[in-house]
Design goal:
alpha+beta; Nuclear Transport Factor 2, Chain: A; 6 strands
Length: 142
Amino acid sequence: MSAGLSLENLARAEVVGLHEFFVAWFRSGGAAPDFGLCEGAFAPDFRMIAPEGDAHDRTAVMRRIREARGVLTSDFRIDILGPRPVWMADEAVLLEYVEQQYRDGRSTRRRSTGLFTRCPSAPRGVQWLHLQETWMGAAADT
Protein backbone atom coordinates (compact mmCIF):
# COMPACT_ATOMS: atom_id res chain seq x y z
CA MET A 1 0.00 0.00 0.00
CA SER A 2 2.80 2.46 0.82
CA ALA A 3 4.68 2.22 -2.47
CA GLY A 4 4.73 5.60 -4.18
CA LEU A 5 2.64 7.46 -1.57
CA SER A 6 3.94 10.63 0.04
CA LEU A 7 4.61 10.61 3.77
CA GLU A 8 1.66 12.98 4.24
CA ASN A 9 -0.69 10.63 2.39
CA LEU A 10 0.63 7.62 4.31
CA ALA A 11 -0.09 9.43 7.59
CA ARG A 12 -3.59 10.40 6.45
CA ALA A 13 -4.29 6.78 5.45
CA GLU A 14 -2.93 5.59 8.80
CA VAL A 15 -5.21 7.90 10.79
CA VAL A 16 -8.29 6.80 8.85
CA GLY A 17 -7.29 3.12 8.84
CA LEU A 18 -6.50 2.94 12.54
CA HIS A 19 -9.80 4.59 13.45
CA GLU A 20 -11.63 2.09 11.23
CA PHE A 21 -9.88 -0.62 13.24
CA PHE A 22 -11.02 1.07 16.50
CA VAL A 23 -14.65 1.09 15.37
CA ALA A 24 -14.54 -2.62 14.52
CA TRP A 25 -12.63 -3.45 17.72
CA PHE A 26 -14.78 -1.43 20.15
CA ARG A 27 -18.17 -2.45 18.71
CA SER A 28 -19.87 -5.43 20.29
CA GLY A 29 -20.56 -8.46 18.13
CA GLY A 30 -18.83 -9.59 14.98
CA ALA A 31 -15.39 -11.00 14.48
CA ALA A 32 -12.49 -9.15 16.04
CA PRO A 33 -10.10 -7.52 13.58
CA ASP A 34 -6.44 -8.53 13.65
CA PHE A 35 -4.94 -6.76 16.69
CA GLY A 36 -1.57 -6.82 14.94
CA LEU A 37 -2.84 -4.02 12.69
CA CYS A 38 -3.10 -1.86 15.80
CA GLU A 39 0.09 -3.00 17.54
CA GLY A 40 2.20 -2.57 14.41
CA ALA A 41 1.03 1.02 13.98
CA PHE A 42 2.69 2.30 17.17
CA ALA A 43 6.42 2.82 17.65
CA PRO A 44 8.00 1.13 20.69
CA ASP A 45 8.51 4.53 22.34
CA PHE A 46 5.03 5.84 21.46
CA ARG A 47 3.51 8.35 23.87
CA MET A 48 -0.05 9.67 24.06
CA ILE A 49 -1.46 12.70 25.85
CA ALA A 50 -5.17 12.04 26.41
CA PRO A 51 -7.78 14.83 26.23
CA GLU A 52 -7.80 15.03 30.05
CA GLY A 53 -4.05 15.69 30.06
CA ASP A 54 -2.89 12.26 31.25
CA ALA A 55 0.22 10.83 29.58
CA HIS A 56 0.32 7.15 28.53
CA ASP A 57 3.11 5.03 27.10
CA ARG A 58 2.65 2.39 24.41
CA THR A 59 2.17 -0.45 26.90
CA ALA A 60 -0.66 1.35 28.71
CA VAL A 61 -2.37 2.33 25.45
CA MET A 62 -2.21 -1.22 24.07
CA ARG A 63 -3.58 -2.61 27.34
CA ARG A 64 -6.51 -0.15 27.36
CA ILE A 65 -7.37 -0.91 23.74
CA ARG A 66 -7.24 -4.69 24.31
CA GLU A 67 -9.48 -4.40 27.38
CA ALA A 68 -12.07 -2.36 25.46
CA ARG A 69 -12.86 -5.07 22.88
CA GLY A 70 -16.61 -5.12 22.20
CA VAL A 71 -17.62 -2.60 24.90
CA LEU A 72 -19.59 -0.24 22.61
CA THR A 73 -22.87 -0.72 20.78
CA SER A 74 -23.24 -1.07 17.04
CA ASP A 75 -24.13 2.63 16.60
CA PHE A 76 -20.56 3.66 17.52
CA ARG A 77 -18.64 5.35 14.73
CA ILE A 78 -15.71 7.71 14.19
CA ASP A 79 -15.25 10.33 11.51
CA ILE A 80 -11.86 11.92 10.78
CA LEU A 81 -12.25 15.54 9.71
CA GLY A 82 -9.81 17.88 7.99
CA PRO A 83 -6.51 16.01 8.28
CA ARG A 84 -3.65 18.34 7.35
CA PRO A 85 0.09 18.46 7.89
CA VAL A 86 1.32 21.17 10.24
CA TRP A 87 5.02 20.23 10.02
CA MET A 88 7.05 17.95 7.77
CA ALA A 89 10.63 16.73 7.49
CA ASP A 90 12.22 14.09 5.26
CA GLU A 91 10.99 11.11 7.28
CA ALA A 92 8.45 12.61 9.70
CA VAL A 93 5.15 14.47 9.56
CA LEU A 94 2.98 16.09 12.21
CA LEU A 95 -0.63 15.68 11.15
CA GLU A 96 -3.56 17.55 12.72
CA TYR A 97 -7.13 16.27 12.45
CA VAL A 98 -10.47 16.31 14.27
CA GLU A 99 -11.80 13.00 15.55
CA GLN A 100 -15.57 13.00 15.86
CA GLN A 101 -17.11 10.06 17.72
CA TYR A 102 -20.78 9.08 17.78
CA ARG A 103 -22.18 6.79 20.43
CA ASP A 104 -25.47 6.39 22.27
CA GLY A 105 -27.00 9.28 20.32
CA ARG A 106 -24.24 11.71 21.34
CA SER A 107 -21.28 13.22 19.54
CA THR A 108 -17.88 14.20 20.94
CA ARG A 109 -14.97 15.84 19.20
CA ARG A 110 -11.28 16.14 19.88
CA ARG A 111 -8.56 17.98 17.99
CA SER A 112 -5.56 15.72 17.63
CA THR A 113 -2.01 15.95 16.39
CA GLY A 114 -0.09 12.82 15.54
CA LEU A 115 3.63 12.61 14.85
CA PHE A 116 4.44 9.90 12.29
CA THR A 117 7.65 8.50 10.88
CA ARG A 118 8.08 6.36 7.81
CA CYS A 119 8.29 2.66 8.72
CA PRO A 120 8.05 0.14 5.85
CA SER A 121 7.28 -2.72 8.26
CA ALA A 122 4.24 -0.93 9.76
CA PRO A 123 0.81 -1.98 8.45
CA ARG A 124 0.34 1.26 6.47
CA GLY A 125 3.96 2.36 6.04
CA VAL A 126 4.18 4.80 8.97
CA GLN A 127 4.28 4.52 12.76
CA TRP A 128 2.79 6.78 15.40
CA LEU A 129 5.46 8.31 17.66
CA HIS A 130 3.29 10.76 19.57
CA LEU A 131 -0.40 11.65 19.88
CA GLN A 132 -1.89 14.72 21.58
CA GLU A 133 -5.69 14.97 21.97
CA THR A 134 -7.71 17.96 23.19
CA TRP A 135 -11.46 18.03 23.81
CA MET A 136 -13.50 20.38 21.59
CA GLY A 137 -16.98 21.78 21.95
CA ALA A 138 -19.59 20.18 19.68
CA ALA A 139 -20.02 23.38 17.65
CA ALA A 140 -16.33 24.27 17.36
CA ASP A 141 -14.87 24.86 13.92
CA THR A 142 -12.65 22.18 12.43
